[in-house]
Design brief:
heterodimer; A: 386 residues; Rossmann fold; 2 domains; 6-stranded mixed β-sheet; 4-stranded antiparallel β-sheet; 17 strands; B: 250 residues; mainly alpha; MetI-like fold
Chain lengths: 386, 250
């Protein structure tokens, strides 16, 4: 557990961080968010003492960070930054092994860990361990950055806009992987971003800051539905119903009873359509290859042309994809359904526009009226959104 | 023969160094060549010392002065990029700049009354003259290390000394070595003026030749010094290549 008590950072006359107090329970993801210059990065960097607080205390599991030598403290806290900061003169494997080496681990202890982590972040060691950072794409470099931060198995991870510098598609993928990895490793994470959608997608709790002051610290649902101030309301944005979709994941609503055929031939027999209007096509390993909209047979399309063949990386979503991203994918492709595949591309289900609508209907009806100015923070209906 | 690309410049430079060594040790070669080029000269070859002796004196002079330049210049460049030395940065760069613009011959003239005749005034003059490229390249190399890489290193728990040794110096090695190379190669040429204060070296036949109007002597010293500079340049270029971390190779 991380505890900040009245943490203040003053630069001359300016208060960069003004008496911030918050608690992050172990295993939770706390997202620090706010406009530029709100003090979120300063707050993050005070936790591993890259910046020394002017006053206040920061405790990690009850121990004051000021009582530990900064280098020693940092070796037990994972650190990921937007610009990644990989060491260009070291290989990917050497980069990941940095902290274990600082801690004096022997090679036989850290080597398997390094390979395991590269596997976890989706960079097969056989292909990438001996590469140098300049040979990696932005997304791959950030995966190495995450693996490097996790190498010594620190219980706490500090991430400063880690996905801010990559293209939107890569960012979505990295966020999905972050959710998957976090579900597995259950680290305590402090995550800085200025992207509301990212915060909603990843946070257990959001700490919204403005001008050094903590405006509200609560669950994403609470910030969306019960903003403590007009600033919080405006910052979270008007499209709250859509944003709430960022909290639900495809895996929660997808249907797994989908029809698929592994016929193997490019000619689709009409009989494949016996049970359903829509049939997915997979290869022998269950990897999604395409689909058949059975109405094409009524239109007299020959069997060889009935199938739509796709690359699952582009035409499918994953169980950890948010409904918001799934919806935008559907709208982008112009379909009412989208296939769900696992990380290896194997078909596991599908999700439809109707499924997403169903999830939206579960939301509550509280509407903040911006004309009221500051809205009360207590819940009006007591019911948490679905 | 199969030689790794990184090693090729080193192999070529070592071969050139061996050829140069053989060439300067063959006094007969110089006698024959210079006699053929200057058939009218009574004494076409500098008589006071062999080319090999002059070259060794020259190498000693360059080794001592450049060695001092490197030993002082690199730490000085490091120091002014640290928080403790940042305030001195302008003073140091101004002084080093001045050291290069101030003519070495004038330094010799000033140092002679203090240090006397011989090796040491020459060493001081050459040391000061060579500092500029070493210090300025050390500063430039360290400043070119991305701040984010240093931030990541600090954030992972490296202390300042470790960040310098494991991250900053490896990443700036190529630029620092380029400064050393410039400094040493210039020094090989400039060291010929040291003969004016009796420090010996390949400047002896040049200055002696000018005094007695014997162009054969001048050519002898100048050719050997020029070849030595080319060999030194090749060796240091090879070292530069080998010190460049693999991850930074284009």
């Amino acid at each position: 557990m991380i505890t900040l008590k009245d943490v203040t950072k003053r630069y001359g006359e300016t208060l960069a961080v003004d008496r911030v107090s918050l608690e992050v329970p172990a295993g939770e993801v706390c997202v620090l968010i706010g406009p530029s210059g709100c003090g979120k990065t300063t707050t993050l960097r005070m936790i591993n003492r890259l910046i020394e607080p002017t006053s206040g205390t920061i405790e990690i599991d009850g121990r004051d960070v000021m009582s530990v030598r900064p280098e020693e403290l940092r070796r037990h806290i994972g650190y990921v930054i937007q610009s990644v900061g990989l060491f260009p003169h070291l290989t990917v494997a050497e980069n990941v092994a940095t902290v274990p080496k600082l801690l004096g681990w022997e090679r036989r202890r850290y080597e398997p860990k390094v390979l395991e982590l590269l596997e976890i972040v989706g960079l097969p060691p056989a292909e990438y361990a001996a590469s140098y950072p300049r040979q990696l794409s932005g997304g791959q470099a950030q995966r190495v950055g995450v693996a490097r931060a996790l190498a010594a198995d620190p219980p706490l991870l500090l991430m400063d806009e880690p996905f801010g510098a990559v293209d939107p598609l890569t960012r979505e993928r990295l966020q999905g992987e972050f959710v998957r990895i976090q579900r597995e490793l259950k680290k305590t994470v402090i995550f800085v971003t200025h992207d509301v959608d990212e915060a909603i997608k990843l946070a257990d709790r959001i700490a919204l800051m403005r001008a050094g002051v903590l405006e509200q610290y609560d669950t994403p649902e609470a910030l969306l539905d019960h903003p403590a101030s007009k600033f919080v309301h405006d910052f979270m944005g008007a499209d709250r119903a859509l944003k709430r979709l960022g909290r639900a994941r495809v895996g929660d609503v997808m249907r797994t009873d989908v029809e698929s055929t592994t016929d193997g031939t490019r000619a689709i027999p009409r009989e494949a359509c016996a049970g359903s209007r829509f049939v997915y096509l997979t290869d022998g390993d269950g990897v999604l290859e395409g689909w058949v909209d059975c109405r094409v047979f009524d239109a007299g399309t020959p069997a060889e042309e009935a199938g739509t063949w796709v690359d699952w990386r582009e035409a499918a979503v994953h169980p950890e994809t948010t409904l918001k991203d799934a919806l935008s994918r559907m709208l982008g492709m112009g379909f009412r359904n989208v296939a769900v595949v696992d990380s290896a591309g194997r078909l596991v289900g599908e999700v439809s526009l109707a499924d997403i609508e169903g999830a939206m209907a579960g939301g509550d009806s509280y509407v903040a009226d911006p004309s009221e100015g500051d809205v009360p923070s207590e819940r009006l209906d007591g019911g948490a959104p679905a | 023969m199969n030689i790794a690309p990184r090693m090729r410049p080193a192999v070529a430079a070592l071969a050139a160094a061996v050829i140069f060594g053989v060439l300067v040790s063959q006094q007969d070669f110089w006698v024959t060549t210079l006699s053929a080029l200057f058939p009218n000269a009574a004494r076409p070859v500098y008589p006071a010392a062999t080319v090999a002796e002059l070259t060794l004196q020259h190498l000693r002079l360059v080794a001592i002065s450049s060695g001092l330049t490197i030993l002082v210049g690199i730490p000085l460049g490091i120091w002014v990029t640290r928080p403790s030395g940042a305030d001195f940065r302008e003073i140091v760069s101004g002084a080093v700049d001045f050291g290069q613009t101030f003519p070495p011959v004038a330094v010799l003239a000033i140092m002679m009354p203090i240090l006397g005749f011989g090796l040491w005034p020459a060493v001081v003059a050459l040391f000061l003259y060579g500092l500029f490229p070493v210090v300025s390249n050390t500063v430039a190399g360290l400043e070119a290390v991305p701040g984010t890489v240093v931030d990541a290193a600090r954030g992972m728990g490296m202390g300042r000394a470790r960040v310098l040794l494991r991250v900053e110096l490896p990443l700036s090695a190529r630029v620092i070595m380029a400064g050393v190379r410039t400094s040493v190669v210039v020094n090989v040429g400039t060291a010929t003026v040291a003969a004016a204060v009796g420090a010996g070296g390949l400047g002896d036949p040049i200055i002696g030749g000018i005094n007695v109007q014997n162009m054969a002597y001048v050519l002898q010293g100048a050719t050997a010094a020029a070849l030595l500079a080319v060999v030194a340049d090749g060796l240091l270029a090879a070292a530069e290549r080998l010190l460049t971390p693999r991850g930074l190779e284009a």
